[in-house]
Amino acid sequence: MRLREWTAGDADRVLEAFRSEDMRAQSGEPIRTLDDAVRWIEGWQDRGHAFAVELDGLVVGNVAVTGIDRHGNGWVSYWTTAQARGRGVAARAAGLLAEWAFAERGLFRLELGHRTNNPASCKVAVRAGFVAEGIERGKLVYDGVRYDVERHARLATD
């Protein structure tokens, strides 16, 4: 596995990933065409650091750190394609991202959150070394339904 910068040539993999029903809500804008996917890739330049997760030469996911603040904190997100799920890919990639963020960006604290009804994402966070810190009640809303979010964090000293 390796993390690398996204390129416009990866747009087909992004489009394929976001065709999955469970991925549609993971982007601020709908990704329905190759042009949408290219814009999604290019948009990371303004939002933070995102890396394509490559496994055996094929892009199978994304890990990113955004919201970097003056205190050395950042927000982590991740996703994998349907074919890569259940194989530990997201946890390994999130762990590599954390190591990069601490060593290369000098960050101290990385946070992430997942809906409490998403145990798979919780497993990813824990396996990547993120410690659960608490529940944020009613934080997210999808299709008119509010969801609680569990917050996790990993420190450079962990």
Automatic annotation (TrEMBL):
<dbReference type="InterPro" id="IPR051908">
    <property type="entry name" value="Ribosomal_N-acetyltransferase"/>
</dbReference>
<protein>
    <recommendedName>
        <fullName>N-acetyltransferase domain-containing protein</fullName>
    </recommendedName>
</protein>
<dbReference type="Pfam" id="PF13302">
    <property type="entry name" value="Acetyltransf_3"/>
</dbReference>
<dbReference type="InterPro" id="IPR016181">
    <property type="entry name" value="Acyl_CoA_acyltransferase"/>
</dbReference>
<feature type="domain" description="N-acetyltransferase">
    <location>
        <begin position="1"/>
        <end position="148"/>
    </location>
</feature>
<dbReference type="InterPro" id="IPR000182">
    <property type="entry name" value="GNAT_dom"/>
</dbReference>
